[in-house]
Design goal:
Largest sheet: 2 strands, antiparallel
Strand content: under 5%
Domain DUF6589: 1-239
Number of helices: 11
Radius of gyration: 23 Å
Distance between the termini: 21 Å
Strand order of the largest sheet: 1-2
Protein name: DUF6589 domain-containing protein
Helix content: 55-70%
Structural class: mainly alpha
Length: 242
């Protein structure tokens, strides 16, 4: 919470806040994770500044990365602290290791989603199941368990392959790192139907909306093209890290 306050992330300083703060939360997680792992590199590399690692070979950097995961971002590292006498446990270090371990799972799943790596997404399902069980999110837990049951036991291989390839992600641009979960893509469609390209005027009706819906992707492409040509004021759809 203190990190969110320092980063001035609106609505994240209390769990009671309600509202669409997903992007703020996502950016804050990435920023805090970057700060944590920068510190980890300095610890395992025994340097005061990251520039001191430039002389290391790729093999040495890879070994340091493994050491970071093993000693500062793993369940084994947490267990090692828990085995110590209670009066000797470093609770601050333990909390940092927990954060590092959990945030790596988050980043791994997010990057897999963006790049279309359904294999990593499927491998993450058991970890999500344990997380939802621990957080008492019973509905999400049930969905994950049912999906695992179907993928591993109930469905034939052809159906499993179809679900992985056609039912989890969609890429409307054909460009790398532009994959979206289907439910998020559908939210964009709903926004276009109800807000951006909604039908207006005295002739607005469900029939007109139905007739116009197939043309919405083309209308969006034309609008973006005109905005680029005339450089009119517009709000972007991408979030850049600064």
């Amino acid at each position: 919470m203190h990190a969110f306050t320092l980063l001035e992330r609106k609505g994240l300083n209390t769990v009671q806040t309600r509202g669409p703060f997903h992007q703020n939360l996502h950016d804050a997680i990435y920023h805090v994770a970057e700060a944590h792992f920068r510190a980890c590199w300095k610890v395992v590399g025994r340097v005061d500044k990251l520039e001191g690692l430039r002389s290391e070979s790729p093999e040495q950097l890879q070994e340091l990365a493994r050491e970071i995961v093993d000693k500062l971002a793993s369940s084994q590292a947490v267990d090692a602290i828990d085995l110590q006498p209670e009066d000797r446990r470093d609770q601050t270090l333990r909390n940092s290791i927990l954060w590092n371990r959990d945030v790596l799972r988050y980043i791994d799943l997010y990057e897999a989603t963006r790049t279309g790596d359904v294999g990593i997404m499927e491998a993450t399902l058991p970890h999500l199941a344990f997380r939802f069980a621990g957080g008492r999110n019973s509905n999400y837990l049930t969905e994950i368990l049912e999906l695992l049951q179907c993928l591993q036991h109930d469905w034939p291989p052809t159906l499993c392959d179809f679900v992985r390839r056609r039912c989890w992600l969609v890429n409307m641009t054909g460009c790398p790192r532009n994959f979206l979960p289907l439910d998020k893509r559908q939210e964009y469609n709903i926004k276009s139907l109800k807000v951006t390209d909604r039908v207006q005027g005295p002739n607005a009706s469900w029939d007109l909306l139905k007739a116009r819906s197939p043309a919405i992707p083309m209308l969006q492409a034309v609008r973006k093209h005109l905005e680029k040509q005339f450089r009119s004021l517009w709000r972007g759809v991408s979030h850049f890290r600064v």
